[in-house]
Amino acid sequence: MGRPDDGPRILVHRRRLVACVLPLALALAGCGEDEPDGEVVPETPIDDDVGLEHVHGLGRNPADGLLYVATHFGLWRVEDDGSAERVGEHHLDLMGFTVVGEDHFLASGHPPLTDEIPPHLGLIETTDAGETWVRRSLWGEADFHALTTAHGKLWGFDANNARLLRSSEGEEWEELGGPDLLDLAVDPDDESQVIGAAGAFEPQGLVASRDGGESFEEVEGPPLVRLDWADHRALIGADASGGVWERTQEGEWEQIGELPGPPEALTVEEDELLAAADGALWRSSDGGRDWQELLRYAEPAP
């Protein structure tokens, strides 16, 4: 995404409240369901379990230190011996997976083909490490392909409606600004600073907000598809080829490492980086320079 000669292009949406959290609000907003949020999401067992593949998100559970893997076909837990175990009987296409506390995860996405669940899950939540999920908000309406938490707030890009939303409790949402986003990250020291990887199906450059996501401008940087920004760590990103990038204190981007293929997911933890690429889960203990294979779930690309 090139910068115009007359300066960065400002991308703004009118901010408005999106409320779909109570029965009356659901009925008024036409969200497709008249049941209150907080309802348990039905299990969706299937006859043919394809196993762990097509990873969307990664995160370590502070309760047990184990790695949890959100996929196109449900949630998996990587045991200490390196084996992967399915969690629960929800074969959901889990998008926007985010670990927010001990046994406490948020996600979005889609169910398998079923008449029991609408095609868009909105925001769903588990407090038992994925054994059960409950509806939190925007059930039947939103499909968050990217979710991030910082400063007690939640930002999410709803791909179904092409909008960036922000919430304090995950119930009522503000619609913010900007273009389509593949991923986004919030400065852990300043919630007004948000950076996004622009694009719908392919990277279109970086955009940055100085007002918490209400408006964005194009900024220089590599065409990233994954971003993460953890406490006391640099902003990390990955491009579509697997290149791993770090933003320096001077604001410049430097390629510091490389994954063996396009990144399906990237997560920055306190003392490690985790990624999914080329049919395997990977870990880096040196900030993204070198990567060790944790678990292979598919054959590598030829």
Write the layout of secondary structure elements.
Elements: E1 10-12, E2 16-19, H1 23-29, E3 55-60, E4 67-71, E5 74-78, E6 84-87, E7 93-101, E8 104-110, E9 123-126, E10 134-137, E11 144-150, E12 153-158, E13 163-167, E14 172-175, E15 181-186, E16 194-198, E17 206-209, E18 215-219, E19 224-228, E20 236-239, E21 243-247, E22 253-258, E23 263-268, E24 273-277, E25 280-284, E26 292-296
Antiparallel strand pairs: 1-18, 2-14, 3-4, 4-5, 5-6, 7-8, 8-9, 9-10, 11-12, 12-13, 13-14, 15-16, 16-17, 17-18, 19-20, 20-21, 21-22, 23-24, 24-25, 25-26
Tally of individual domains: 2
| Class per helix and strand makeup | mainly beta
Shape call? globular
Q: What is the alpha-carbon Rg in Å? A: 19 Å
Q: Count every beta strand, where a strand is a DSSP E run of 2 or more residues.
A: 26
Q: Report the top-level CATH class of the largest domain.
A: Mainly Beta
CATH architecture of the largest domain: 6 Propeller
What report would you give on this structure?
The chain is mostly beta strands. It has two domains: 131 residues, 6 Propeller (Neuraminidase), CATH 2.120.10; 120 residues, 6 Propeller (Neuraminidase). It contains one helix and 26 strands. A five-stranded antiparallel β-sheet has the order 1-18-17-16-15, with no helix packed on it. It starts with 9 loop residues before the first strand and ends in a 6-residue tail after the last strand. The N terminus is likely disordered.
